[in-house]
Amino acid sequence: MQKKRSRIQIINQQKVLDAATDIFAKYGFRGGTIDQIAEMAGMSKPNLLYYFKTKKEIYLAVLEQTLNKWLQCLQDWQVTGTPEETISNYIDTKLEFSRNHAAGSRVFANEIMEGAPILKTLLGEDLKRLVDEDTKVIKGWVKNGDIRPIDPIHLIFMIWAVTQHYADFETQIETLTGKTLQDEDFYKQAKKTVKQIILGGVLKES
Amino acid sequence: MQKKRSRIQIINQQKVLDAATDIFAKYGFRGGTIDQIAEMAGMSKPNLLYYFKTKKEIYLAVLEQTLNKWLQCLQDWQVTGTPEETISNYIDTKLEFSRNHAAGSRVFANEIMEGAPILKTLLGEDLKRLVDEDTKVIKGWVKNGDIRPIDPIHLIFMIWAVTQHYADFETQIETLTGKTLQDEDFYKQAKKTVKQIILGGVLKES
Amino acid sequence: MQKKRSRIQIINQQKVLDAATDIFAKYGFRGGTIDQIAEMAGMSKPNLLYYFKTKKEIYLAVLEQTLNKWLQCLQDWQVTGTPEETISNYIDTKLEFSRNHAAGSRVFANEIMEGAPILKTLLGEDLKRLVDEDTKVIKGWVKNGDIRPIDPIHLIFMIWAVTQHYADFETQIETLTGKTLQDEDFYKQAKKTVKQIILGGVLKES
Amino acid sequence: MQKKRSRIQIINQQKVLDAATDIFAKYGFRGGTIDQIAEMAGMSKPNLLYYFKTKKEIYLAVLEQTLNKWLQCLQDWQVTGTPEETISNYIDTKLEFSRNHAAGSRVFANEIMEGAPILKTLLGEDLKRLVDEDTKVIKGWVKNGDIRPIDPIHLIFMIWAVTQHYADFETQIETLTGKTLQDEDFYKQAKKTVKQIILGGVLKES
DNA sequence: TATGAATGAGACTTCATTCAT
DNA sequence: TATGAATGAAGTCTCATTCAT
């Protein structure tokens, strides 16, 4: 039974989640501390623990929230068009997510590098289902001769890798270029190049 | 005065570094503990600290060792051939590194997600120099009409992202496919697909 | 000036005291928490603290209430009859108290095992006075040849020990026999046996 | 596998157990703190936790140690003689235990008043078996006409209650009489009176 | 070289209590 | 009268590090 949440409760819980996302993004679950989160959220540690009883509970809430945003994000994507439109749209969606939820993306990355103790089941079930669907679509394109003969799963990994890279390795990218996805021109250039190469490598020459 | 290192010392130090690489790969610097490293290395904590005085010293040694392997790896790479040969070779090199040093790759990933407190300077100097050189080469190709007009920096990021993905997200990949780069067929298929798409997207149609 | 206490106040205070008696009986003063008491009393913690300002205040009220009941209980007891009647009556009284106020008895037991920080003075004054009186009565009986020559203080301890045992070690007794003093037959049998032995050991054979 | 314990380890573990027995005797498991135990044992808190990893582990060790002493104690008891000898001997044994292990006795009392979360199983199995045996013996005496017709279980409870009372309510007894079982005369007088009454109440007049 | 013992700092969490409404 | 929100103090436990042998 979901407790009724007052206005201030919603606000404070979100403050905590935002701070926690940043901290867990940097240090992972084990490395991040409640002190850091409390300070960043601008509240005392016991007050924070009034909203979330344990560190793990905060972590789970962060994962869940990020997951929801990610799923919602993927729902925006449509498989209806041509391969070019569909892939292009998918890259748009993923890169947009990396721009708007860089910290969330890093929380996922950390979780997976820790061996995905929480998300493993989910990855093996829900995500696998999504991937299987996409794989079928791509296989259909190949069989149909719409695109070059490509191994679908590695194409999917490639798109994920590239789009998430801009979020997960933001520090490195910023150190090397002085830019992040927040920079509009840089964002456009990244999107353009990624699409250029992937579509160029996947589509048949007309 | 460099202490003379006995045979056993060298062996034990390497045992520590191997264990530490695994632990820091999973939990990052903050999240990993000396206890975990000592246990994995099969020695007592005080004995471990006889070889490395502090946790940070271990971490630095891990980073340095991984870095050396990575640089050595890159030295094997030759820019002398055609764009196709050069890029193909680069992908080979990076993917091979991901296969042989998956944990090391994840230590880097963690370090960068923590904001690269140790490596930031290095990234901004040594790595930037390497990247600048590569950028020049690619620009030359473009100007020369050898390849399509591509933004060099995003091409480089793309190759990094894709090749490292197989190391950094190993857990996710294994959960989805049941395979890792250690699987020879999977490794070959990954390499083939990555080259196919990137080269296909970069090279001009003949 | 004694605040006028409304009906609901009286009811709620009693709800708190009942819950607190149970909790302190189980965990002692230090081990019991206001949360536990509040939950058992079915009210929020701040509301509970509206009736009793501090944990200690609750504890004192519990001790006082139990004490009052105990004293009232002892007033029912009459020394007027024969030794047999008097002792028999005393055992009745004490055992009845154990049955009706098992939790209260345990609160006392805890208090005393903690070193009686609150009750020590009372024990040394009021209780000592009562014990001294009883001692005199018993000594009189002995001198008079009404009962066997018995050390009065140890007789008193014995009656206390036995009667309180059924309250304080209720869990043990229930585990061993499946019964408590709430069970009418068990209660009667306990009373009968206790009287049989003590009276048999104290009274002269006729 | 029992770790080999060095000399100092044994000494320090015993220091901890002794202190913990006193603290848990006073405040119960919930109420007693590691700080108190560490201070009483004369060592730092982390050092104490080097020997026992958790508070519960200390508590279990205390219960186990006390239990062992208690069982060893009961082994000294012989059922071989007449009812008089046997009961007399039993009282001796139990009272001696109360004198030598007053704190341990109180730890048990606390455990039982908390509902015996740890010992419940043990009480229901091992102790029940012991009690059943004793019950049979007593029943035999009754059937044989050696003693008066007494309910065995309540006789056993009575002996336990009385003998343990001197340990568990030591504070009250000392406040009222200025004596404890450590006082030799008081000890002898208690023993004499207890035996006098119980034997007087149980045995037939010769 | 190796390890049992020890500890201060700090992390997570609980709890009595207060505040504001 | 009632309760959601907040907090300082304290309690349990972990961890990097040091010491002694």
From TrEMBL, chains A, B, C, D:
Domain HTH tetR-type, first and last residues per copy: 10-70
Cross-referenced PANTHER family: HTH-TYPE TRANSCRIPTIONAL REPRESSOR SCO4008, TRANSCRIPTIONAL REPRESSOR
UniProt-recorded name of the protein: TetR family transcriptional regulator
Q: Which residues bind DNA?
A: 33-52
Q: Does the keyword DNA-binding apply?
A: yes
Gene Ontology BP terms: negative regulation of DNA-templated transcription
The record's section on InterPro entries has: Homeodomain-like_sf (IPR009057), HTH-type_TetR-like_transc_reg (IPR050109), HTH_TetR (IPR001647), Tet_transcr_reg_TetR-rel_C_sf (IPR036271), Tscrpt_reg_YcdC_C (IPR013573)
Signal peptide as annotated in the record:
none
Molecular functions (GO terms): DNA binding
Task: Spell out the coiled coil positions from the record.
Answer: none
DNA-binding as UniProt keyword: yes
Q: Which domain of life is it from?
A: Bacteria
Annotated keywords: DNA-binding
Q: Where are the transmembrane segments?
A: none
Q: What Pfam families does its record include?
A: TetR_C_3 (PF08362), TetR_N (PF00440)
